[in-house]
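Checklist before submission:
- one chain only
- standard amino acids only
- sequence pasted in full

Submission:
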Amino acid sequence: MDGRKIAGQEVARSDPDFDLTAASVTLAAFYLAGCRCLSLNSPVPESASRVDKWLWSVRVYKTRSLASDACRAGSVTIGDQPVKPARDVRPGETIHVRQGVVIRTLVVLAVPRSRVGAPQVSAYCEDRTPPGEWEKAREQRVQHLLARERGSGRPTKRDRRQIDRLLGAAGLDTLPIDRLGLRRANGKDNGNPL
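Returned file contents:
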Protein backbone atom coordinates (compact mmCIF):
# COMPACT_ATOMS: atom_id res chain seq x y z
CA MET A 1 0.00 0.00 0.00
CA ASP A 2 1.37 3.34 -1.02
CA GLY A 3 0.54 5.57 1.99
CA ARG A 4 1.61 7.06 5.24
CA LYS A 5 1.36 5.93 8.79
CA ILE A 6 -0.77 8.30 10.88
CA ALA A 7 -1.43 7.47 14.52
CA GLY A 8 -0.07 3.95 13.99
CA GLN A 9 -2.24 3.11 10.97
CA GLU A 10 -1.26 3.08 7.34
CA VAL A 11 -3.52 5.23 5.19
CA ALA A 12 -3.52 5.17 1.40
CA ARG A 13 -3.10 8.42 -0.44
CA SER A 14 -5.84 7.55 -2.85
CA ASP A 15 -8.34 6.96 -0.04
CA PRO A 16 -11.23 9.44 -0.60
CA ASP A 17 -12.00 9.61 3.16
CA PHE A 18 -8.43 10.62 4.01
CA ASP A 19 -8.14 14.26 5.06
CA LEU A 20 -4.59 15.35 5.77
CA THR A 21 -5.77 18.44 7.68
CA ALA A 22 -7.99 16.42 10.04
CA ALA A 23 -5.19 13.92 10.62
CA SER A 24 -2.76 16.74 11.44
CA VAL A 25 -5.22 18.26 13.90
CA THR A 26 -5.71 14.85 15.54
CA LEU A 27 -1.95 14.39 15.89
CA ALA A 28 -1.57 17.90 17.27
CA ALA A 29 -4.30 17.18 19.83
CA PHE A 30 -2.49 14.00 20.93
CA TYR A 31 0.77 15.91 21.23
CA LEU A 32 -0.78 18.73 23.21
CA ALA A 33 -2.60 16.30 25.49
CA GLY A 34 0.76 14.73 26.24
CA CYS A 35 2.07 18.18 27.21
CA ARG A 36 -1.00 18.74 29.44
CA CYS A 37 -2.02 21.80 27.44
CA LEU A 38 -5.36 22.20 25.73
CA SER A 39 -4.51 25.12 23.51
CA LEU A 40 -1.49 27.24 22.87
CA ASN A 41 -3.14 30.44 24.11
CA SER A 42 -4.68 29.15 27.34
CA PRO A 43 -2.73 29.88 30.52
CA VAL A 44 -1.18 26.88 32.21
CA PRO A 45 -2.69 26.60 35.69
CA GLU A 46 0.02 26.80 38.30
CA SER A 47 -0.49 24.46 41.20
CA ALA A 48 2.67 25.36 43.10
CA SER A 49 5.00 28.29 43.62
CA ARG A 50 7.99 29.10 45.79
CA VAL A 51 6.97 30.30 49.24
CA ASP A 52 9.03 33.50 49.00
CA LYS A 53 7.48 34.35 45.64
CA TRP A 54 3.96 33.64 46.97
CA LEU A 55 4.48 35.83 50.07
CA TRP A 56 5.72 38.66 47.86
CA SER A 57 2.96 38.26 45.28
CA VAL A 58 0.15 38.41 47.89
CA ARG A 59 1.74 41.51 49.44
CA VAL A 60 2.83 40.07 52.79
CA TYR A 61 6.32 41.43 52.12
CA LYS A 62 7.26 44.46 50.06
CA THR A 63 10.09 42.76 48.17
CA ARG A 64 10.89 39.18 47.30
CA SER A 65 14.30 39.46 48.98
CA LEU A 66 12.58 40.46 52.26
CA ALA A 67 10.38 37.37 51.93
CA SER A 68 13.46 35.20 51.31
CA ASP A 69 15.25 36.71 54.31
CA ALA A 70 12.21 36.04 56.52
CA CYS A 71 12.18 32.40 55.39
CA ARG A 72 15.89 32.01 56.11
CA ALA A 73 15.44 33.62 59.54
CA GLY A 74 12.77 31.08 60.49
CA SER A 75 9.90 33.58 60.54
CA VAL A 76 7.84 31.56 58.04
CA THR A 77 6.51 28.13 59.01
CA ILE A 78 4.26 25.55 57.40
CA GLY A 79 3.05 22.79 59.70
CA ASP A 80 5.18 24.10 62.59
CA GLN A 81 8.32 23.57 60.49
CA PRO A 82 10.47 26.52 59.34
CA VAL A 83 10.65 26.61 55.56
CA LYS A 84 13.33 27.54 53.07
CA PRO A 85 12.52 30.16 50.41
CA ALA A 86 12.44 27.56 47.60
CA ARG A 87 9.79 25.33 49.21
CA ASP A 88 6.68 24.97 47.07
CA VAL A 89 3.30 26.05 48.41
CA ARG A 90 0.03 24.61 47.16
CA PRO A 91 -3.58 25.67 47.58
CA GLY A 92 -4.99 24.56 50.93
CA GLU A 93 -1.77 24.92 52.92
CA THR A 94 -1.64 27.11 56.03
CA ILE A 95 1.35 29.42 56.41
CA HIS A 96 2.33 31.14 59.67
CA VAL A 97 4.35 34.34 59.23
CA ARG A 98 5.91 36.19 62.19
CA GLN A 99 6.02 39.95 61.55
CA GLY A 100 7.24 41.72 64.67
CA VAL A 101 5.05 40.56 67.57
CA VAL A 102 2.20 39.45 65.28
CA ILE A 103 2.03 35.88 63.99
CA ARG A 104 -0.14 35.98 60.87
CA THR A 105 -2.01 32.86 59.77
CA LEU A 106 -2.57 32.71 56.01
CA VAL A 107 -4.33 30.01 53.99
CA VAL A 108 -3.25 29.57 50.36
CA LEU A 109 -6.31 29.69 48.10
CA ALA A 110 -4.49 29.95 44.77
CA VAL A 111 -1.08 30.73 43.33
CA PRO A 112 -0.81 33.96 41.31
CA ARG A 113 1.49 34.18 38.31
CA SER A 114 3.02 37.45 39.56
CA ARG A 115 2.42 40.17 42.17
CA VAL A 116 -1.24 41.11 42.40
CA GLY A 117 -2.92 44.36 43.37
CA ALA A 118 -4.28 44.82 46.87
CA PRO A 119 -7.95 44.35 45.84
CA GLN A 120 -7.15 40.93 44.29
CA VAL A 121 -5.22 39.52 47.27
CA SER A 122 -8.36 37.99 48.79
CA ALA A 123 -8.67 35.69 45.75
CA TYR A 124 -5.28 34.14 46.51
CA CYS A 125 -5.06 34.00 50.31
CA GLU A 126 -7.32 34.05 53.35
CA ASP A 127 -6.08 35.80 56.48
CA ARG A 128 -7.08 33.78 59.56
CA THR A 129 -4.97 35.74 62.03
CA PRO A 130 -6.71 35.71 65.44
CA PRO A 131 -7.80 39.15 66.74
CA GLY A 132 -5.57 38.69 69.79
CA GLU A 133 -2.50 38.94 67.56
CA TRP A 134 -3.56 42.36 66.29
CA GLU A 135 -4.20 43.45 69.90
CA LYS A 136 -0.59 42.58 70.75
CA ALA A 137 0.63 44.88 68.00
CA ARG A 138 -1.71 47.66 69.11
CA GLU A 139 -0.63 47.33 72.73
CA GLN A 140 3.05 47.39 71.77
CA ARG A 141 2.45 50.57 69.75
CA VAL A 142 0.87 52.22 72.80
CA GLN A 143 3.68 51.09 75.08
CA HIS A 144 6.20 52.48 72.61
CA LEU A 145 4.46 55.85 72.72
CA LEU A 146 4.35 55.85 76.50
CA ALA A 147 7.90 54.62 77.01
CA ARG A 148 10.19 57.05 78.75
CA GLU A 149 13.91 57.29 78.48
CA ARG A 150 15.79 55.45 81.14
CA GLY A 151 16.76 57.75 83.99
CA SER A 152 14.26 60.49 83.13
CA GLY A 153 12.29 59.84 86.32
CA ARG A 154 8.58 59.88 86.88
CA PRO A 155 6.34 61.80 84.51
CA THR A 156 5.52 65.33 85.62
CA LYS A 157 1.97 66.59 85.98
CA ARG A 158 2.25 68.15 82.52
CA ASP A 159 3.57 64.89 81.04
CA ARG A 160 0.72 62.98 82.66
CA ARG A 161 -1.88 65.32 81.16
CA GLN A 162 -0.29 64.93 77.72
CA ILE A 163 -0.40 61.15 78.10
CA ASP A 164 -4.08 61.31 79.11
CA ARG A 165 -4.87 63.51 76.09
CA LEU A 166 -2.98 61.15 73.80
CA LEU A 167 -4.79 58.09 75.11
CA GLY A 168 -8.17 59.80 75.01
CA ALA A 169 -7.71 61.06 71.45
CA ALA A 170 -6.65 57.63 70.24
CA GLY A 171 -9.55 55.90 72.01
CA LEU A 172 -7.12 53.93 74.12
CA ASP A 173 -8.11 55.29 77.51
CA THR A 174 -9.63 51.92 78.46
CA LEU A 175 -6.35 49.99 78.27
CA PRO A 176 -5.05 48.68 81.58
CA ILE A 177 -1.75 50.51 81.80
CA ASP A 178 -0.82 49.35 85.27
CA ARG A 179 2.23 47.62 83.76
CA LEU A 180 3.60 51.06 83.09
CA GLY A 181 3.17 52.05 86.73
CA LEU A 182 0.98 55.01 85.86
CA ARG A 183 -2.49 53.80 86.81
CA ARG A 184 -4.09 50.63 88.10
CA ALA A 185 -6.67 48.75 86.05
CA ASN A 186 -9.44 49.92 88.42
CA GLY A 187 -8.72 53.56 87.57
CA LYS A 188 -7.15 54.57 90.87
CA ASP A 189 -3.64 55.84 90.92
CA ASN A 190 -0.98 53.76 92.60
CA GLY A 191 0.20 56.34 95.06
CA ASN A 192 2.06 58.54 92.62
CA PRO A 193 1.18 62.18 93.27
CA LEU A 194 0.46 63.01 89.63
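Reviewer check: The helical segments are 20-34, 51-57, 64-72, 131-146, 157-170.
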